[in-house]
């Protein structure tokens, strides 16, 4: 079992993120400072999430104000934090503008309210289909059956909304333009990596294959909870902001759908049928509640119903009978 992630974005991370955004945007930012930023960014998932938020605020200000003090003040106000000093070097406005800082922070706070994302481009797959999509930045998506995504790229963020189903994301690295998958109110932020996200019921599951991602689950009643994944790890978050524990993933099973295979380990028959039904318009049905609880294990082709019938009959004594054009009934032999 992994430890329970219960990490709130701290005041310190919020303030330092604001200063890093301003520093990295300046012309005299040194290579040493950029290296220090990379270490800070990677050191804590709270830092990564705080930087992502501050970067969005900085971008949305449309260059009207370029001051870390105003940015940090606005971010503190948004998160109800009192101001505290920080060790990073500050980027102040000219003296003539200091009297306007209070008003500037209020001005900046208004655009930070959630805004409608760009309309974007929708991609979808039907039952039994899979689809590869090459995005403009060199990243690639693979959509599984019955999946819907909306690509909403903007100058400051590469956003993809996963509305239904599951997809694999192979992301080209760009620290200045993070790649963010939105699903059920949560986000998965990557710079350069390969991972999968699946929306199922009221929750979403994230599995990391390469690189690193930060997962944030937002709640209406409190701050976002954040966790980082390493390769071979997975977690689930729910639409209500609940963030599950980090678990080890079976990467062979995770990758199976990309190869048209379903790796099953001690599943109930009804769960196995529900998963297979995603891949075809011809649905399997079970009428016997006791049969629905039968346990199934093995490797199955997601699109070959003929071989499935033979395997179920030979291994578990389950008969497949076509009872309608698009319906197969499973019964005991």
From TrEMBL:
The keyword Membrane applies. Keywords: Membrane, Transmembrane, Transmembrane helix. It comes from the Bacteria. The chain crosses the membrane at residues 91-113. Residues 122-213 form the FecR protein domain. InterPro entries: FecR (IPR006860), FecR_N (IPR032623), Ferrdict_sens_TM (IPR012373). Residues 15-56 form the FecR N-terminal domain. One of its GO terms (molecular function) is sigma factor antagonist activity. PANTHER family: PERIPLASMIC SIGNAL SENSOR AND SIGMA FACTOR ACTIVATOR FECR-RELATED, PROTEIN FECR. This is FecR family protein. It comes from Luteimonas marina.
